[in-house]
Amino acid sequence: MAKLEELIANEESKVLCLGNEAIARGAIEAGVQVFAAYPGTPSSEISMAMNAAAPKLGFYAEWSTNEKVAMETAFAASISGVRAMTACKHVGLNVAADAFYSFLYMGCKGGFVTVVGDDPHCFSSQNEQDSRWLGVSAQFPVIEPSSPQEAKEYVKRAFDVSEKFEMPMLLRSTTRVSHARADIQFNKFESNFKEGEYEKTNRFACLPALARANHPKLLERMEKIKEWLPTSGFSTIEGPDNHTEFGIITSGNSYAYVKDALKTIKKELPILKLGMVAPLDEQTILEFAKDKENIIFIEEVDPYLEDRISALFIQNGVIPKIHGKSSGITKRYHELNERLVAEALVKVIGGSIVQVNEIERSVEETNDFVPFRPPLFCAGCQHRAAFWELSKIVRKNKGIFASDIGCYSLDPWVTDTILCMGGGIGMANGFSKVIKDKPIFAYIGDSTFFHTGMPALANAVYNKANINILVLDNRMTAMTGFQPNPTEEIDIADVAKSLGVEYVVVFDPYDFENGKKVFEDALKHEGPTVIIMRKICANEDWRRKRRKGEKIEVFHIDPEVCIACGTCIVQYQCPAIRWSLETNSKGKNYSVIDPDVCTGCSVCSQICPVGAISKVDE
Amino acid sequence: MVETYQMVICGVGGQGILTISDIITIAAQMKGLNVLGSEVHGMAQKGGSVITNLKIGKNLNSPTIPIGTSKMLVGFEQNETLRYIKYLQPRGTVITSETVLFPITWKKDKEAADKARESIKGNLGKFDANVHFIDAEGLANQAGLALTQNIVLLGALSQVEGFPIADNDLREALKLRVPPKHIEVNLKAFDLGIKAVKKNN
Q1: pTM (two decimals)
Q2: ipTM of the assembly?
């Protein structure tokens, strides 16, 4: 990661940073004054950089409880005349949709930019949603940078465009732009922060009569952007200009693959790169296509450009042959790369790519050899501890277990369903209405609880759902990089009680004896129960202690007592424990604890059936 | 025109992969070259399989490296080296640590472990590649700090034919990236890595 001093230094320099940090720098150079966001991979580093920079540069940044609140916060700032921004992952944009579908009708005043991080290939997500469609459906202007450097420049431009047309702008990034690392040219900036001013008007109240009047105005603004696009510089044409057989239309990161693929297959073709993908630069597209026999669309995931532009061709009587997802040259799922694009181009224009067979053979061979190394809960993780006793109770009672989004999705034991942020409690409510003979459980983290869990809990109380809600409160939003959240100041037990939950218990997830009693007790209770397991994230706690040079009281295993039953390794799966390659004095295997990884949580010593594990120095 | 140099660095989360890709990037910048890397965050927890792509050159476009096109593969762990060797171009070079981290549920005695190591080594030998096995752990301990295994590998990879950055430039970049009190021991580890490859040749 780039250093904070570099990110906020007001000078011309080249800085090695992530695409997301380049986006944050773009916002800083644009003089953004209000930033609000909820973390989500692959967007989180934008918000981390903005929250770190804000107090140093004197603008406002916050970690909001969810993407909708963040969007509303930034929108209010914008209509008070200051530049505002928000960032989220693709599914986070869905949470915010209720807000922006309506405020787009009303437009903005101070520049307003939302950055959305799409995740083709689901590296860290539950789906491959293509956010460009929102550009059509909500009339949200969408710009799509092809590299980290361009992402920085586009953010800056987006604020200008937003103010020019009084339209909020959506900047779509993808994992490969957000998490690329490159040397980025930083520029000097001026921060002219000012007090917000809200001018009294009825423009910003979306009552039906006003909405009816505003809808055509929205379409007019989009038309104006469309008219301006050909001279905006967002559309660029390169390659041989006398080529009439083939032309490529692309956008975003796919453009980078096209450039590399053409180099690989040693061809030069005309390329139209669209920097803005909604609304479309119709004039430039039609001009580019009118003398070409074949148009090749290269884009990731959905055939967004292909479908929209094919329709445009028909409407204008331009009929080139279309190559893309519809003809199967690229797939409608997972991410592209240089090779897939080269193969796609070869299918249309001919030629060949060398060594494909050789490579395919070696891929098959390696797949046979290598052991699977799945991501695991960290050493000392309290989710693992929580799930240990819980999973026994759930299994014994044949319970149904609705989990949620967070580190706990890594549970290897009892999870039945995972749907969306806060979805566990809602689904548990539904299960409880149709499945009467089995206990129903919902599991949720503290950050997700504040994100969308609270309305679902109120619903469960109101509708008398007989469910057990387990909240693992590890004091932070751990999975996306340990961001802070309201659990620091608002006690989830108080929230549950004030919402009318009668059975609320808080305990330490490492305390198994107590935990067992609580779970069994909760099952006897009618109506929703809330069981809060509270303990600071073991991983972050361990790192903080190491940084401060604090002693960590690690555990060790007595080789002569250990019976190599595998409870701690095979069943509990703590990454700090492994089998010894040596044998003890009886010639038997035993397990060992790596003192550099052990966090001293003590759980293995509680579950060891022969008491072989104890604190070092005891 | 500067030819783009593509390399893949892989291992298990927490082994210090990012540090050496940072050092390579800083050194490349000092030489006036561009670097484009790609990483995956989020679900990649500690202990998971990790891969980083690096492209070094001029006018770089896409950040990822397709299968079969990397000139060099640097592996911090032999299973991971095997997992990602598919990214190597035919007759490319592999620098791999001899370290083997067995999946945690793997229950074997010393003899079986040695056998498994031999089999991984044998499988790596089946590929059309120039493979260098480096005792990164031993050499790092020899340098005086077990955490410098990544720097041993950095020294080793600097000797691969065609790698566009000279070892002295990497030394300068290293001094900027590692904690000042550890510069000396890191430079020692770096030199031991260089020697290890030279001895192999």
Answers
A1: 0.94
A2: 0.90
